[in-house]
Amino acid sequence: MEFASTYQHSHLERVLFDQASIRERVAEMGAKISREYTGDGLTIVAVLQGGALFMADLIREIRLPLQLESISVASYHGGTSSSGTVTFNQNRLPEVEGRDVLILDDILDTGRTMAAIKAKLEGECSPHSVKSAVLLSKKIERAVEVEADYVGFETGDEFVVGYGLDYRGHYRNLPVIGVLKPEFI
Fold first, then answer.
1. CATH assignment of 20-155?
2. Scanning 76, 94, 98, 120, which has the fewest C-beta atoms within 10 Å of its C-beta?
């Protein structure tokens, strides 16, 4: 099915990053990560749900042995802005003691989620190192000062969907990243 014919495309005000651009940038990120890590101690910790598509594509571009873990957190709780509270949705944390950890998330905006995950892993799991990679980094003043070590794209302070990013569980499967029209929010 052609992307332009899907109903979801008509819900976008505009496309910020098309499928080809996303693929190219994710490949570049994978190559950089592959150059910067050595050994066999890399563990990818993907933040679900939004980071799942990014994780799937990025790990295929990383040319190193790695382990894959996931973590489920919530901070939006169905709205268009962070609630200010990060909730961990699982009982156990990934086993990453002594390993290099790379946290993968779809978007870095307020910084609360990334900071909370990083603090929890460092405080309770004894990793060798913790870095982060995000597909998108919003160019905004963050509530918590944190920056990602690897960034796919920078974007303004707009509500974006597609490629894992959602609004109330919808639009994750769009192969592009776009700005949702206000009437669909």
1. 3.40.50.2020
2. 98
Residue 28, SS3 per DSSP: helix
Three-class SS of residue 162?
A: strand
Instruction: Tell the residue number behind the tokens 């890590």, with chain if given.
Output: 37
pTM: 0.88
Give start and end residues of each alpha helix (H) in the chain.
19-36, 52-59, 112-125
Render 46-92 in DSSP notation, one character per residue. EEETTTHHHHHHHHTT--S-EEEEEEEEESSTTSSS--S--EE--S-
Here the tokens at position 151 are: 């960034």
Let me know if 157 is a catalytic residue: no
pLDDT tens for each residue of 56-110: 999 999 999 999 999 988 775 555 555 567 777 777 888 899 999 999 999 999 9
Per annotation, catalytic residue among 57, 100, 105, 109: 109
Better pLDDT: 77 or 20: 20
> How far apart are alpha carbons 139 and 16 in whole angstroms?
14
